[in-house]
Amino acid sequence: MTFNTLSFETGADDVGLLKISRAKALNALNKELLDELMTFIEKVKQENTLRCLIITGEGDKSFVAGADIKEMQNMSPEQGKTLSNRGQEIFNAIEQLPIPVIACVNGFALGGGMELVLACDFVISSDKAKYGLPEVSLGLIPGYGGTQRLARSIGVHRAKMMTFTGGIYSAQELYEWGLISKLVAHDALLEETMKTASLVAQRAPVAIAKAKESINAMRDLSLEDGLKMEQNCFAQLFSTEDYTIGLDAFIEKKKPVFSGK
Ligand code: DAK
């Protein structure tokens, strides 16, 4: 896959590394980038060869500095709605991928960049990264899911503080508030993220997909319905090849090599 605004490589254990690559604009999400991101996510889903996907930003300074502000000038409410719809569609597709997606946050994660982080399954962050939703400084609000996903991640009151101040918050704060799963020294970020991704990639893929489906559904279900959903996902795994491989390997004291079936 070749793109103008993304770069991609596959490494050991079928871990994919996607870099958002518009370094001259601090990796801001313009239309071309959003279109390429959607194409990329659709291909990942269709080809079904990756075991884990890492998303990071090119360069040393920025993950994604938001939606491209220069492209958002002079828009009508209809155009705003179309843009918001497109961004939400792409971030939903990331959230619903059957493989784990790790945000590897190497610098500024602002506006749409913070919303991209929120669509990922978990977050490994440089201790130098900075987070924020500055949209209200531009007379806007987050339009790619930020008003919905942030509160579900760090709680309503902190989400409102971040959104209403439009301020920039440190990685340490976001770690304490639970958004960041692992906080690492800036220079060790990629190596640490690769290690975690590699661990995830060696686990049973269908089991991970079912765990992701069940955890994601938790937000919209009562505990009772969520527990039923968990039961169904759990039960379905007993018909997989990986279940046999996993249990046999444990009993034979071997390392399981999962087939993903
Ligand atoms: N868009 C376009 N270009 C950007 C950009 C952005 N978000 N962020 C940075 N750049 C560009 C700068 O214009 C500059 O380009 P040149 O002037 O060199 O051509 C280059 O990147 C380097 O940036 P700086 O020179 O500003 O670098 P500094 O280190 O001085 O500052 C900064 C870094 C991240 C603090 C600063 O660049 C900054 O404040 N950037 C804007 C951050 C921001 O406000 N992000 C949120 C964008 S708003 C919606 C849908 C979506 C959204 C809202 C509504 N609906 C449809 C309703 C989402 C909105 C956003 O994400």
> Which word captures the global form?
globular
The number of helices is: 10
Work out the count of structural domains. 2
Bound compounds, please? 4-(N,N-dimethylamino)cinnamoyl-COA
**Mean pLDDT level:** 97
Please mark out the parts with pLDDT under 50 across 5 or more consecutive residues, or reply none: none
**Tally of DSSP β-strands:** 10
Provide the structure class.
Answer: alpha/beta
| Rg calc | 19 Å
Strand residue content: 15-25%
User: Which CATH top level class of the largest domain fits?
Assistant: Alpha Beta
Which second-level CATH architecture of the largest domain applies? Alpha-Beta Complex
Fraction of residues in H or I helices: 40-55%
What strand line-up does the widest sheet have? 1-2-3-5-7-10
Largest beta-sheet characterization: 6 strands, mixed
What would your notes on this structure say?
A hairpin with a 4-residue loop joins strand 1 and strand 2. The mean pLDDT is 97. By secondary structure, this protein is an alpha/beta fold. It has 2 domains: 6-201, Alpha-Beta Complex (2-enoyl-CoA Hydratase, Chain A, domain 1), CATH 3.90.226.10; 205-251, Lyase 2-enoyl-coa Hydratase, Chain  A, domain 2. Helix 3 (112-119) crosses helix 4 and helix 4 (146-154) packs across helix 5 (156-165). The longest helix has 20 residues, at 77-96. The chain has helices at 31-47, 77-96, 112-119, 146-154, 156-165, 171-176, 189-201, 205-217, 223-236, 241-251, and strands spanning 6-10, 15-20, 52-57, 62-64, 101-105, 108-110, 122-126, 130-132, 168-170, 182-184. Helix content is 46%, strand content 16%. The protein is globular. A 6-stranded mixed sheet has the order 1-2-3-5-7-10, with helices on both faces. It has a 4-stranded mixed sheet with strand order 4-6-8-9. The protein starts with 5 loop residues before the first strand and ends in a 10-residue tail after the last helix. It contains 10 helices and 10 strands. Residues 25-26, 28, 65-70, 80, 83-84, 87, 108, 110-112, 134-135, 138, 140, 142-144 line the site of 4-(N,N-dimethylamino)cinnamoyl-COA.
